[in-house]
Amino acid sequence: MNIVILAKNPDLYSHRRLLEAGIxxxxxxxxxxxxxxxxxxxQKNRVIHYRGGEDITGVDAIIPRIGASITFYGTAVVRHxxxxxxxxxxxxxxxxxxxxxxxxxxLLSRKLIPLPVTxxxxxxxxxxxxxxxxxxxxxxxxxxxxxxxxxxxxxxxDKAAKSLINAFKHLRVNILVQEFIKEAHGCxxxxxxxxxxxxxxxxxxxxxxxxxxxxxxGGSARAVKLTPDERKIAVKAANAMGLNVAGVDIIxxxxxxxVLEVNSSPGLEGVEAATKVDVAGAxxxxxxxNARPKLRLPL
Length: 299
Hints:
CATH topology of the largest domain: D-amino Acid Aminotransferase, Chain A, domain 1
Low-confidence stretches: 295-299
Helix content: 25-40%
Distance between the termini: 10 Å
CATH class of the largest domain: Alpha Beta
Shape: globular
Mean pLDDT: 90
Strand order of the largest sheet: 14-13-12-15-16
Radius of gyration: 20 Å
CATH architecture of the largest domain: 2-Layer Sandwich
């Protein structure tokens, strides 16, 4: 098959592993920079060109690895591949859903998936009640646009929370206010979902003095065994977003597992290192089973 990985940095571990896994399974695979793809939008001639004129419309499948900073342009490119009949691992709609933290939480809530108590408001006059709504301080303040743990802040007192929330409101920055799960002790679990299966999971542990467990922020990782309830919730969360491949982050609370976030472009380095599972190979295998090869075109 002819497979294109849409990504910005070809040297990232995740992108190299997907490339290697595809080549090992005898596919023609290449990494293309998403922002260098451009489109002809017309009634009869929906083509996609790359870097000055190369027609890449006729590939069999694409693996979108769309960075958060280019979500708008990246999903537009994915939509054009979809309109041209190219199989895409995750759809443009699913990617857009998962990138909007507020929308994704509302979708998860509609599916009755357990979540941390989360508040969203616009007026500074409502800040006091917003803080009470999530159980008071300590609490988490999240930028809607943040990724990899960036844009997530801990307010340890009601006074600090009020100051922080109102500062963002005055700057017209959209934020979520979320309860702080103290009993998690700075740990969360990343579940790697492919369609209806959790193929691997690992626990991320925050470094000393940090409440965020992201590997990018110095957290450590180790394999973890999920409970049946955790496995079911993680799969249900990915399906609620419409994602074929997803990283679902859950946290263990006194009232059971809670979903923190659903990621449409989960990194492979942490999960493969911690679990020794060939996640990249499993992704390529899923594409083989679900994409229909087109007439072979040279890449």
